[in-house]
Amino acid sequence: MKFVAFERTKQGTGASRRLRITGRTPGIVYGGAGKPQMIELDHNALFHAIKKEAFHATILEMELDGKVSKVLLRDLNMHPYKQLVQHIDFQRVEANTKLTMKVPVHYTGEENSHAVKFENCLVNHIVTDLQITCLPADLPEFIAVDLSDIKKGVSVHLNDITLPKGVSAVTRGKENPVLVSVTATVEEAPDPAEAAAAAAAPVAGAKPAAGAKPAAGGKAAAAAPAAGKAAPAAKAPAKK
Q1: DSSP element (H, E) containing 144
Q2: Which tens digit of pLDDT belongs to each residue from 117-151?
Q3: Burial class of residue 152 in the structure, from the number of CB atoms within 10 Å of its CB (0-12 exposed, 13-18 middle, 19+ buried)
Q4: b/e for 177-197, b at 16 or more Cβ within 10 A?
Q5: Is 2.40.240.10 the CATH number for 2-93?
Q6: Are 110 and 182 within 8 A, CB to CB?
Q7: pTM for this one?
């Protein structure tokens, strides 16, 4: 990936502020055999470039004063709430010097695994980028990890994957960290009160068991109003 930088002659807080007003981003390039050099970049072009994963994880070609040199993005300072790159740092790359940097991890194949398709497992990507060390020529754009063979309850560790040739992982603290966990989904238990009410409710259209007494409010209750009807009053004697 290639970008264009320009030499920056003025430095300081005030100069950098005025530079940003004109649509430029101040920066610096250092490392290698050369001295640190102040640079500036077109902000719009830079803002679109930083949205690409390759800009953060691959060797870049920087054109400066008609010369092209290989660099790495080392630091990016964004405005707290504006879409504005305030400052950017690059490091020169030497072919025979190993470099250390973070590269993204791309996981594939989990949707085709037995754990996901048939056991309804949840796959948690614990590590999304990995710090590695290698020569510039061996630097991968990303680390590919195939999850098509994952199993329920079995985590994927760093030692379980194959790194590209010439690449070594840099681990701090844990020698074999967990990259991916595979867990079974837990069904939510029904509310006890609701479950009891559902079990006690009669099924529509079901006949009562032989010998079962009618429930309160059934036929016996229905007969009560009939029994409670008053007898017709006796006729009054006819007048003579």
Answers
A1: strand 143-146
A2: 999 999 999 999 999 999 999 999 999 999 999 99
A3: middle
A4: bebbbbeeeeeeeeeeeeeee
A5: yes
A6: no
A7: 0.69
